[in-house]
Amino acid sequence: MIKNVFLKKSIKLIQRYHLNYNKEQEQFIRYGLEAIYLSLIKLIPILFFAFVLGLFKESILFLVFYTLLRFFGFGLHSNNGYICFISSAIVFLLLPYLSKIIEINLYLKVFITIFCFFCFLLYSPADTKKRPIINKKKDCLLKLYLHLF
What we know:
Elements: H1 2-17, H2 23-52, H3 56-73, H4 81-101, H5 106-123, H6 136-148
Helix pairs in contact: 1-2, 2-3, 2-4, 3-4
């Protein structure tokens, strides 16, 4: 499988330059490399189709802003890789396409932006299975941090 080859070669490359890490650190590195691999496997075809459809610039901009939001909001996660790919393709191709063809007046854009910003403030960070917010005080601190920065 391509993923295993990527992981093995990446681990060997890391071992060549950084010899002092234990099994727990190796698992952490492997987990990070797997996340990078899965992201690239999904992102490359989506950006290819964006280029073919003439949406490359819009898709890149959407991806950058989406990534910035995910740093704090964490977002939703699919249980299945195929569903994740399909939903990502829809989001990263359909929304930039719609932004290109639909003209919205400035007042509506400002209203939508303010509405989305307040929803982001109210509902982030997300309480997910992988990142549950157990400590309500921590949740409040994260929200305060989001408000300030």
